[in-house]
Amino acid sequence: MARRAAALLGLCALALLLGAPLAAAAQSAGTAAAANTAPLRFGILPLGGAFESRNDWEPLLADLSRAIGRPVSVLSVTSYEALEQAIQRDQVDMAFLSGKMALDAVTQRRMNVVAQVTRHDGLPGYRALLLTRKTGNFTTLKDLLARPERWRLARGESRSVSGFIVPQLQLFLPNHIAMETRFASEVVGTHQATALAVANGEADVATNNTADFERFKLQFPAEAERLQVIWESELIPHAQLVVRRAYSPEFQKKVQAFLVDYARTKGPRGEAERAVLKSLHDLAGFVAADNTSLLPAARLAYQLARQSAMTSQWVNEAARQARLQRIESGYAEQVAALRNGAP
């Protein structure tokens, strides 16, 4: 009896030993299955209102959900800062971002570029604009550059390429004007909000861009009729779509293939997808891209930082040179990361 009891105890112990890894394997499989069915959280740049942006993207994201076999949830925010904070808190798995934010997402937040948008004009980018009213005391670029302190400015957030970075770099700093300090007042908001501010007399000049101003003309024709363009920038590369690097290369390729193929087929399905893109900022489609597509954005950020350092006041020249050296080394590191695959 004693030997039989000992044998039974041994078998129980063996079962427990074998059961532990089996239970762990089952739990691991359950976790993986849950991860594969968890929503892909998609973050959207606030190009118009948050509600409008959400409505614009939802048809395409519903198609993406069917293509990848998992739900896609939408995070539509009211500011660049809110989206940046959501990315920092790992609340976003995939996002539609313009140059500077996409650059930060790749180099600092462990994300990868999978695609870049294209437009019907065939140009590889868009242009930043300055808008004023057609009539009144504040209507010409010459007057703006001569006495900026008299003008009320409506601009994009500091992360906005066309709303801040490019106008600052290509127009204002070369004319010894810092956008943040030289104007009588400023309103910071979306491209839609800045154009409305000028049209409604709440500001004298607004930053904007060619793509969003075309959209503004369709949505607010009466207000757009009051506005004119007094300056436009060089071409700015189109926005990118990025995916968190924690997702497998196979999954990232699957998302990329969906985007590249979207709206390219003939027949009812292709027509329906092209209609979705038309309502979505009148996009023509997407092309495959990788992190090297952000090299122009890195160059813009580098040029802005260098220009700011050159025109700022410093306690001595050594401090300025030290800042310039940090800018150079930081830019070199960014370029290397984009070309070799960010860590």
Question: Which structural class fits the helix and strand makeup?
Answer: alpha/beta
Instruction: Give the distance, in angstroms, between the N- and C-terminal Cα atoms.
Output: 63 Å
Q: State the total count of DSSP E strands.
A: 11
Which whole number gives the mean pLDDT?
Answer: 86
Principal-axes shape call: globular
**Most strands sheet:** 6 strands, mixed
Task: Give me the number of helical elements.
Answer: 13
Low-confidence stretches: 1-34
Fraction of residues in H or I helices: 40-55%
Rg for CA atoms: 26 Å
* Run of helices and strands: HEHEHEHEEHEHEHEHHEEHHEHH
**Strand neighbour order, sheet with most strands:** 2-1-3-10-4-11
- Which range does the strand content fall in? 15-25%
Overall description:
With 343 residues, this protein is an alpha/beta fold. The protein has 13 helices and 11 strands. A 6-stranded mixed β-sheet has the order 2-1-3-10-4-11, with helices on both faces. A 5-stranded mixed β-sheet has the order 7-6-8-5-9, with helices on both faces. Strand 6 (152-155), helix 6 and strand 7 form a beta-alpha-beta unit. Helix 2 (50-68) packs antiparallel against helix 11, helix 6 packs across helix 12 (295-311) and helix 12 (295-311) packs antiparallel against helix 13. The longest helix is centred in the first third of the chain and has 36 residues, at 2-37. Mean pLDDT is 86; it is low at 1-34.
